[in-house]
Amino acid sequence: MKDEEFGQRSSERPAQNTDTYIPGVCNIDRKGRWIRGAGAFAGLVFVVIYNEKWHLVFSHPVLYATGMVLLATGTALSLIQAMASFCVVDGLLGRTLISADHLTAPVRSPESRKKDTTRALLLIGGAFVVGFLFSAVLLISEINASR
């Protein structure tokens, strides 16, 4: 489909999944997205294993839920970072992994650093909400299954 069918030219579209640093939007390259995507997949595997075998480690559902919140939040954060092309650690530390020599480079502009910090905190908050809700659903299903 052509871009004109949607009423937008490609120059008007917001840049996503690019290898160009855009303050508050994109601070990692393709390799960084792949690494975070692989981390999200590994996290999903750990979440499934933990959900099935938690009773071997913990004897109380509250401990299970706490562990699940941590695992699910980490998994959600990895997935969100991969999809958003944005590393929260680099955003909070004021650096970018997109440079000509593929090394971390500091972000010099205070306005850009503020945008990166705001985006990083937003992604962390979103990942926590997803992890918490996912864990709550699983905890409710575990409690119902034990009756």
From TrEMBL:
It comes from the Bacteria. The chain crosses the membrane at residues 34-50, 62-89, 120-141. The keyword Membrane applies. The keyword Membrane applies. Keywords: Membrane, Transmembrane, Transmembrane helix. This is Uncharacterized protein.
